[in-house]
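Researcher: I'd like a structural prediction for the single chain below. Treat it as a standalone chain; there are no partners to consider.
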Amino acid sequence: MPTSTSRYGRRTVSSAALGLLLVGVAATPALAESTRSKQWFLDAMQAESMWKTSTGKGITVAVIDTGVDPNNPDLNGRVLKGKDFAPSSRAGDEHTDYNGHGTGMAGLIAGTGAYSGGNGAFGLAPDAKILPVRMPGPGDISPFEVNARLSQAVRYAADAGAQVINISLTAGNDSQQVTSAVKYALGKGSLIFAGVGNSGDKGNPVQYPAATPGVVGVGAVGKDLHKTEFSEYGQQVDISAPGDEMVHACGGKTGLCESHGTSDATAIASASAALIWSKHPDWTNNQVLRVMLNTIGAPTDGEKRNDSIGYGIVRPRIALKTPGDPGPAGKYPLPDYPVAASKSPSTKPSKGAQAPDDSSSAAPAAASKGDDSNTPLWVGIGVGALVVAGAATAVAVTRSRRRAAASQASPPPYPPAQPPYQGQPYGATQFTSPQPYAPPSGDNRHNPNQGR
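Model: Treating it as a single chain, here is the predicted structure.
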């Protein structure tokens, strides 16, 4: 972030029996440093090195969320015309972000850093395009309509040509409508990512659609590359990505937020896929995912996969540098998708890496002849509600995943992290003097003048 700016906002949305749930976030004011210097995840993933090879150009990422504001300078020229699935009672359209969360996810994916003369926030795939697909907000529709709208949104995104579909929210329960829509989207060549939810320290309920077969379920890790306390765990977790203390463009007056949640991690996973796909436009969705799995930073416990971070932490830099064999074009690489799944993932994650730390020079494991699978969505506000999973606004995450056993898993032995907050952008942009981060308090809306 700009050294002279304090634009971060922090907000938190609690789980409520309304609408869609956002999957976890928190935002805070900036220190006397540039915006870019606060984006630790870009350094950990060696973004500048990757951008010499790929910036996500030519790839469209559908953001099924609260809408995306195309007027944020960091998203100028990146937001396409999309579709609004909110009822007419909800003002605006897909370019009207009623919560700020959708803009935050878009910022993590495709932010250009253009704000304030180049002192804005970058996304991991700054040349990717964003297809905004707005979902209903809390109280807009009945719980019984949520999955129907979500399935329509997924089908629309696939029909509109989005290679990657980002769902940082959850509908709370399983649905044949959504399962059918996921299958349809995979058949159209799309790759779907969804946040597993932010209630890992609060009951760890399995959330959908991240637990839906064919959706890649994404968990969150912090700066220490361990699972965060809030990130949910279980068999629904396929992969993990950075999702704590994430600085990015967002909706609201300040235009910049810091947040945390599996929403944020999902956006990073989606952007990682965009980088790889842009480099290899002739690959299928299955091949892109397989290479992501082949080059992942595996769990440090020696297991190929565990319930805390799944198969490991995404490492797109390794995927771009030494992708290995992408494997069969028509076989889904994750084991939870019954139509096109093998008995085990087609990749053997490289060992020793626990997060997106690309310092490892080990070559990715060669793709096997098997297959794999994934999951995505909003984490939401109550039964039948969609919840946002982590950007400028945070929401409690509840999801039911592929196997009932997921909810019975024991908590991972990772060090505790911050509880999930939902980011509320600060009321006014300030450029005069730098402000320290503010601690969470009350409803998690913070005064940017408070220290931390």
